[in-house]
């Protein structure tokens, strides 16, 4: 009997496998692919499984598995900062991705996804749920020397 968490990880790995070139011998790290850059003001953002303070939202979304969604409403933003939704929308999900980085200076999300560019242009909402990226994706990155981004072995549990 296979645990549901293992099946979920296998599904995510299979989905991310769509990024791999045909005939690739092993999984390339998260740093070997073209990463689309999405401006903060082009997409709305919502954490759907818990309440996150607006000041901590970027910490929550960075290195997270997100749904790439299309809401029917136009995204309106008064500032250059992230557009935060106050309620979870009813919307179409066009695929999934990993927010591989958040550039606060340029106000960009870097999203790793196998969703083709023509579909990615329709995305105007990122929904973050309670699905973790499998550890092997983060720990097993080939070609990274030194510390692996988003992975640490020095963690102070007394915080």
UniProtKB/TrEMBL annotation:
Tell me where in this chain the NOL9 C-terminal domain is found.
Answer: 37-134
Membrane-crossing ranges are 12-35
* One MF annotation (Gene Ontology) recorded for this entry: polynucleotide 5'-hydroxyl-kinase activity
Q: What's any GO biological process attached to this entry? A: cleavage in ITS2 between 5.8S rRNA and LSU-rRNA of tricistronic rRNA transcript (SSU-rRNA, 5.8S rRNA, LSU-rRNA)
Q: Which GO terms describe its cellular component?
A: nucleus
Q: Name one Pfam family in it.
A: NOL9_C
Keywords, in A-Z order: Kinase, Membrane, Nucleus, Transferase, Transmembrane, Transmembrane helix
Record-given protein name: Polynucleotide 5'-hydroxyl-kinase NOL9
């Amino acid at each position: 009997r296979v645990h549901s968490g293992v099946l979920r990880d296998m599904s995510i790995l299979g989905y991310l496998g769509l990024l791999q070139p045909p005939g690739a011998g092993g999984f390339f790290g998260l740093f070997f692919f073209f990463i689309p850059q999405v401006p903060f003001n082009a997409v709305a953002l919502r954490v759907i499984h818990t309440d996150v303070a607006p000041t901590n939202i970027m910490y929550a979304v960075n290195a997270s598995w997100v749904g790439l969604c299309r809401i029917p409403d136009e995204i309106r933003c008064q500032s250059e900062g992230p557009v935060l939704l106050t309620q979870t929308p009813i919307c179409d999900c066009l695929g999934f991705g990993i927010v591989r980085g958040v550039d606060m200076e340029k106000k960009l999300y870097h999203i790793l996804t196998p969703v083709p560019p023509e579909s990615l242009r329709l995305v105007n909402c990122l929904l973050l749920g309670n699905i973790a990226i499998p550890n092997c994706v983060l720990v097993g990155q080939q070609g990274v020397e030194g510390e692996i981004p988003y992975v640490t072995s020095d963690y102070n549990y007394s915080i």
